[in-house]
Amino acid sequence: MDQLPDSAPLATKLRNTLIQYHGIADSEWRLAKITKDATVWRKPSEEFSGYLYKAQGVLEDVTNRIVDHIRPGPYRLDWDSLMTTMDIMETFEENCCVMRYTTAGQLWNFIAPREFVDFSYTTDYEDGLLTCGISLDYGEVRPNFVRGFNHPCGWFCVPLKDYPSHSLLTGYIQTELRGRLPQSAVDTAMSRTLAKFYSDLRKALKA
Q1: Interacting residues of 76 by C-beta distance below 8 A, sequence separation 6+
Q2: Short-list 139, 103, 104, CA closest to 119
Q3: Would you write out the chain's pLDDT as a tens digit for each of its 207 residues?
Q4: CATH number at residue 31
Q5: Helix (H) or strand (E) holding 16
Q6: Does an H or E element contain 192, and which?
Q7: How many independent structural domains does the chain possess?
Q8: Exposed e or buried b for every residue in 4-36, given b needs 16+ CB within 10 A?
Q9: Is residue 2 included in any domain, yes or no?
């Protein structure tokens, strides 16, 4: 089990990695799923043998309120149907922490519940915000859970120039679920989960 990393260099590296993902050309992405709430693309990850997913949709709210619902805090468990528990294990400063959370089973429990321990960092980006994270090998694995691993992930939320009361939310997710799972099942679950994330978030913001 690793010791906790120095937060400042990890936060800087994580931010730079997400900005690099945000600059990937449209031609490198392949469409994975479209719903009324979001569009999801994917490309092979450079971090592991699975995919890096990109999700994007417009939400009718200001960036700060949207990001407050996404990052670790009191809102997230209220609306995210995939997340079942969340604990802040360490806080470095107001915008930087380590959290442990668990997720529900997926695809009729073919994918069993998972546990993650993530370093999370939220920072300014252009006129909006970036909240991002990466998993750590930290803390004992709870019984009845498989420990998953999030390679660099994050959400960019910026106001629309002509409609500042609306925001464009763009996410980059690359989750290694681990365990003996066929890649096709993982791909189906990831696309579905990301699309549902947007519909659940939209409902929560309107509540």
Answers
A1: 69, 70, 83, 86
A2: 139
A3: 567 778 899 999 999 999 999 999 999 999 999 999 999 999 999 999 999 999 999 999 999 999 999 999 889 999 998 899 999 999 988 799 999 999 988 766 677 889 999 999 999 999 999 999 999 998 888 888 889 999 999 999 999 999 989 999 999 999 998 877 778 878 888 998 999 999 999 999 998
A4: 3.30.530.20
A5: helix 7-22
A6: helix 183-206
A7: 1
A8: ebebeebbeebbebbeebeeeeeeebeebbeee
A9: no
- Whether 1 is covered by a domain: the verdict is no
Closest to 104 in 3D by CA, of 52, 144, 58, 154: 144
Domain that holds residue 12: 7-205
**158 backbone dihedrals φ, ψ, rounded to 5°:** -130, 145
Query: In 10 A of CB 160, how many CB atoms?
Result: 12
The answer to the question of residue 94 being in a domain is yes
Spell out the long-range contacts of 41-47 with Cβ–Cβ below 8 A and sequence spacing 24 or more. Answer: 42/187, 42/190, 42/191, 45/151, 45/174, 47/151, 47/152, 47/174
Per the listing, tokens 């989750």 go with 175
**Residue 146: C-alpha distances to residues 99, 105, 112, 142, 163 (Å):** 16, 11, 8, 8, 43
Which tokens is 92 given?
């470095």
| pTM as predicted | 0.93
Domain for residue 106, yes or no?
yes
